[in-house]
């Protein structure tokens, strides 16, 4: 999937009398913007000497595209991604740059902000001598930017922007604190103080002549109208119609596929696709995802491909690629599907992503016990989200006591209060959003956009990815339904059954119950399924497997990944950063290796991810060296056991 990068200088002097060659810098940006072996990047036309814009794309499945220019040569537009609706456009082409140019020439900035889809657009207007950067309302194409004394630059990777003169490798201490407690970053933060994430629905305006930069938001959740009255049946029928349009608009390639698990997101997409498509599943042989996805594929008649994960060796093979693609913003224990990507390219150029149907169509903030996120006062909401970030939205992480012991160093102690304080500051900025939407909006923009979107970024290193659940019209429809309908688990099941009842009669991996709106059918199936599971536990090979996880990361880390973890956690480079108390670190590791507690991986895997990110971005290591794949172990198994005994 294509992305943009570029640099614009306020002056071509670096402040020390040296002329800065923006084209040469942009060439280095191009080299660092590539995040996968199948991507290529080139520089586009340069409308003025101080501005150079480039584009990266999948060379074998996407066309090369230069800027589109107005007839008088005064306006240039670059675009990347997919546009599915272009009000007022006179052209029928789907190529982003011409559509963006038409929209801008017709209606100015309002034309760009009326675009729908998953995109980023850059426009240079020589008439006003302004450069604009505009992304879609949900920020589905993650881009980073930096702005300093010398000018402005943007790119789809953090590491690319470290090539810009004046950008330091200074670490954002709040980012470290957030990742330690939340296993993700919040807001616009990255690992680097000088680099930020472009917020969703942004109009970034940069004037090279004065080096002035501003960012305004053209859409927010408070733009949604109050809920309309609607019957359950009308809501289901309307959703089927709107979601069908969202899926159809993104079927832009004859080679479109779907990643399929035992959940509801992928199967619902499959139900709305009116052609035979390839489907892909990855996972351990004895996991529910593999078994249920195979049933779904047979029912839908798809060309199904399964990629087994028999042990953790695949994690080591793909760790450098994962680090390059996500720059540590999503831990290595979330490298979902990376081992399937090389082969999936044989069958598909684009995948429709199920990210994140459970929140958008399912009406769930991670759980169906969501009242604490929707009915709480300000303090209650802050407490609910803090608990969610620390231990519910992903693997349970460090508790307060563990964090205090781990960070009991001169460098670490100042980090302790930063995570909660920064989360509360981000939440405070959403006070203008109506209470009924505030919890959903905060979850979508923080957890989905800042964390789970990295799964999409990973897939985009090999395939085009479209996100039907984030269709603008669909979200407007769903979030203006009565809350009792939108947040009901039955609503999503009814939409699925209305479109494809066969797929609603195959159990869901979470509870082995069918996602059907009929309570009587659900109860009847549950009785039969419980009986089969009873027989299965007594050795009769019937029913579905008990194992839920597609990959056993926790035991990988105790077995085949243990030497790798110890190289990272106990290496002198890691300890010399001064964040961690060595004894507390060894105690955390020993608790995980002991295997006597469930879900301890969330206390140690994030520490590995932080160290890999610092080596890659701050130390400037190549990805394999940052992952400690070419370094000798500095702590033996016997030594690690000794460390653990000192708890």
Architecture overview:
Helix content is 41%, strand content 15%. It is built from 27 helices and 17 strands. Helix 24 (582-594) packs across helix 27. The model is unreliable at 89-93 and 632-647 (pLDDT under 50).
Compact summary:
The chain is built from 27 helices and 17 strands. It is α+β, with helices and mostly antiparallel strands.
* Alpha-carbon distance between the two ends: 48 Å
Low-confidence stretches: 89-93, 632-647
* Overall helicity: 40-55%
- How does the helix and strand content classify structurally? alpha+beta
Biggest pleated-sheet summary: 6 strands, antiparallel
User: Could you tell me the radius of gyration in angstroms?
Assistant: 25 Å
- Beta-strand share of residues: 5-15%
What is the number of helical segments per DSSP (H or I, 4+ residues)?
Answer: 27
- Report the mean per-residue pLDDT as an integer: 91
Shape: globular
Oligomer: single chain
**Based on DSSP secondary structure assignment, what is the total number of beta strands?**
17
Strand order of the largest sheet: 2-3-1-9-8-10
Quick tags:
6-stranded antiparallel sheet, 27 helices, disordered C terminus, alpha+beta, 647 residues
SSE topology sketch:
Layout lengths: L2 E7 L12 H12 L5 E5 L7 E8 L9 E2 L5 E11 L10 H12 L1 H5 L2 E10 L4 E6 L8 E5 L2 E5 L2 H4 L11 H10 L13 E2 L4 E6 L4 E6 L14 H18 L6 E4 L5 H7 L6 E6 L4 H13 L2 E6 L4 H14 L14 H4 L5 E3 L4 H4 L10 H4 L3 H14 L8 H7 L11 H11 L6 H25 L4 E3 L5 H7 L4 H4 L2 H11 L19 H18 L16 H6 L3 H8 L2 H5 L5 H13 L6 H17 L5 H4 L10 H9 L2
Helix pairs in contact: 5-15, 6-17, 6-19, 13-15, 24-27
